[in-house]
Write a structure and sequence with these properties.
Chain lengths: 267, 259
């Protein structure tokens, strides 16, 4: 495990860490006796598209959910856009602790199950945070929301309710709902896993468009083809550690046997 | 033994005002008790879900105790037992009845509301938190409105039960519908006619509530809202649609102008 961490720090020199949009340092997380994350270091730089892959139960989703603190680390620190949170790295003096909500405001998240608010119209799903969190006037909020929905091709659905939309449309609304808050980084937690196969394409297309705008993205996905296409940095996780990370070449030429075995099995 | 075959309905028609006064008091007791029980039920549900184990256990005990006692026993205990033993002169019979109904129904409603809140998937809360909403904000705008829709049918059942259960306070000498009926029957000896009218009145009251609840259920069912709005010719619905159309046109116009 130590070797892995050392190699990782070769990939991303410490000098860079202060400029990273997202910096995770020595994250540990357990659920009961299940040690899910065992010392994760990860940096995501502005404009970078990070793809996280690995077998189920490897801790990918937990890692992603730690970035916006839906899971709070047992130890280690999370920093997003200069806001630091977490109990701190073991053996270091504890730094100042930022506000959890301030950190979350910098991070957009798209969930596997969409998690749209079923009692609100499509438009209200996208305006609610603008009004409640950013305290925008209704007109302003609705214009921003409608523009964002137009971008994902759903302007004609603003009056509909989530239950009236297909899964692909719901997921695109969810993307708009996250984007409208102008996050510094977007997290995608297996965004196409709950979709019918013929609806996967439209969601991937929306994500591809987003990647083209230079948005910083962290994507947990089983769509290896898509991962290979957009991933600037590709992270392979297994049993709660980052086994290996690298550029696109990782898919054809990786260093670790475990990575090779996984890629061979899924591609 | 010969069954009574001639009915005399004048005993009912002559006493409409009397029935009316009984119905009014029945409904007043039910309404006051139900509003108070609902408010208390919400508080109990929230405290039950608090992470503090002492508070949560206290609420569980409250629910257990008040659900376990038969309502009639409880009403008599509060009025004749507690109020008289402790010299609570200020407690009138009506108030004692309301108190008993509120304590017991708030326990039932508390359980209903708790289950409604817990039925909302965790992902709803997470999605709200992920866009930066506060915990209270998430509860009041995301969890509570959805939970309220879920609990409409069982809460409606409780309201129907409440209207019927107000009849138990007749034993404290409160002149609600049942007591009025009882006195009239004893005076006129036309038991069948007098009680049948009361049966019909209770049926009418509870059926009305039933349809009211059904209406609410439809009105607030998530999927139907839009079709309801489309169908509706209310000025409010038309204004909403017009707003959305203007918004779409503005954004579309802006987008084409930009390209």
């Amino acid at each position: 495990m130590a070797a892995v961490r050392e190699r990782h720090s070769d990939d991303a020199p410490l000098a860079d860490s202060s400029r990273a949009t997202v910096a995770l340092r020595d994250i540990h997380k357990s659920f009961g006796s299940n040690h899910v994350l065992r010392g994760i270091d990860l940096q995501v730089h502005a404009g970078e598209h990070v793809v996280i892959f690995g077998p189920s139960g490897s801790g990918k989703s937990t890692l992603l959910r730690t970035i916006n603190l839906l899971e709070e680390p047992d130890s280690g620190s999370v920093r997003v856009d200069g806001i630091e949170y977490g109990p701190g790295v073991r053996g270091e003096p504890r730094g100042r602790r930022g506000d959890r909500r301030d950190l979350r405001k910098q991070v957009g998240m798209v969930f596997q199950q969409f998690n749209l608010f079923p009692h609100l119209s499509v438009l209200d799903n996208v305006t609610i945070a603008l009004r409640r969190v950013k305290k925008l006037r209704r007109d302003e909020a609705e214009h921003r929301a409608a523009r964002q929905l137009d971008r994902v091709g759903l302007l004609d659905k603003i009056g509909a309710y989530p239950a009236m939309l297909s899964g692909g449309q719901q997921q695109r609304v969810a993307i708009a709902r996250a984007l409208v808050m102008d996050p510094k980084v977007m997290l995608f937690d297996e965004p196409t896993s709950a979709l019918d196969p013929e609806l996967v394409g439209e969601v991937l297309a929306a994500m591809r468009d987003l990647a083209d705008t230079g948005m910083t993205m962290v994507v947990v996905t089983h769509e290896m083809g898509f991962g290979r296409e957009i991933g600037d940095a590709n992270v392979f996780m297994d049993s709660g550690v980052i086994v290996e990370q690298g550029g696109r070449e990782i898919y054809s030429d990786c260093r670790e046997e475990r990575t090779r075995a996984f890629i061979k099995a899924v591609l | 033994m010969v069954a009574q075959v001639t009915f005399d309905w004048s005993v009912v028609t002559d006493n409409v005002a009397l029935y009316y006064s009984g119905v009014k008091l029945t409904l007043a007791i039910a309404a006051v008790s139900f509003v108070l029980a609902t408010l208390m039920g919400v508080v109990i549900a929230l405290l039950r879900l608090v992470r503090n184990p002492v508070i949560s256990a206290a609420m569980a005990t409250y629910i257990n105790v008040f659900r376990a006692i038969p309502l009639l026993v409880f009403i008599l205990f509060i009025y004749y037992g507690v109020a008289i033993a402790f010299d609570l002169d200020f407690l009138t019979a009506i108030q004692a009845g309301i108190l008993a109904l509120v304590l017991q129904y708030s326990a039932w409603l508390g359980e209903i509301f708790r289950s409604g809140i817990q039925a909302i998937p965790k992902g709803q809360r997470e999605a709200a938190l992920s866009v930066g909403m506060s915990r209270p904000g998430t509860f009041f705008t995301i969890t509570l409105p959805q939970a309220a829709r879920i609990v409409i049918p069982p809460t409606g059942n409780m309201l129907i039960g409440m209207v019927k259960d107000t009849s138990l306070v007749y034993l404290l000498g409160v002149s609600e519908l049942l007591r009025v009926t009882n006195l009239l029957a004893n005076r006129t000896f036309r038991y069948f006619e007098v009680y049948l009218a009361t049966v019909a009145i209770y049926l009418l009251l509870t059926t009305t509530i039933y349809y009211g609840v059904k209406f609410l259920e439809r009105r607030y069912s998530v999927v139907d809202v839009l079709s309801e709005i489309k169908r509706s010719r209310s000025p409010l619905a038309r204004r909403r649609l017009a707003r959305l159309r203007t918004l779409q046109e503005t954004v579309q116009g802006g987008a084409t102008a930009a390209t």
